[in-house]
């Protein structure tokens, strides 16, 4: 399985837009990607501009499909436009 965890900070005042876009991406991805097992977006309890995106895919092919999907190309640019500074994107191997 392929797992990625992205930690990022959303620009002040853009939180609602970011959450709306991420919710749309998550819903569409779950409807259209059988290889997507988990796509969670969580917000820090105290620092309300800090978010983590956690995604788990069945395999590399499922991850590649996600990256190449039309809705991904449509939604990710405005999502990234909400991000302030650099996003910390890490890949992991799922254990249990």
UniProtKB/TrEMBL annotation:
Q: Tell me the domain of life.
A: Bacteria
Q: Where is the ABM domain?
A: 2-91
Q: Does the keyword Oxidoreductase apply?
A: yes
Q: Which UniProt keywords apply?
A: Monooxygenase, Oxidoreductase
Q: Which InterPro entries does the UniProt record give?
A: ABM_dom, Dimeric_a/b-barrel
Which one of the record's GO molecular function terms can you name?
Answer: monooxygenase activity
Q: What Pfam families has UniProt attached to this entry?
A: ABM
Membrane-crossing segments per the record: none
This chain belongs to which protein, by name? Antibiotic biosynthesis monooxygenase family protein
Lineage of the organism: Bacteria, Pseudomonadati, Pseudomonadota, Gammaproteobacteria, Chromatiales
């Amino acid at each position: 399985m392929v797992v990625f965890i992205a930690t990022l900070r959303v620009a002040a005042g853009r939180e609602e837009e970011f959450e709306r876009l991420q919710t749309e991406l998550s819903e569409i991805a779950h409807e259209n990607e059988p290889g997507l097992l988990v796509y969670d977006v969580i917000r820090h309890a105290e620092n309300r501009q800090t978010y983590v995106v956690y995604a788990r895919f069945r395999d590399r092919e499922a991850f590649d499909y996600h990256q190449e999907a039309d809705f991904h190309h449509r939604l990710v640019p405005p999502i990234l436009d909400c991000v302030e500074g650099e996003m910390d994107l890490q890949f992991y191997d799922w254990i249990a």
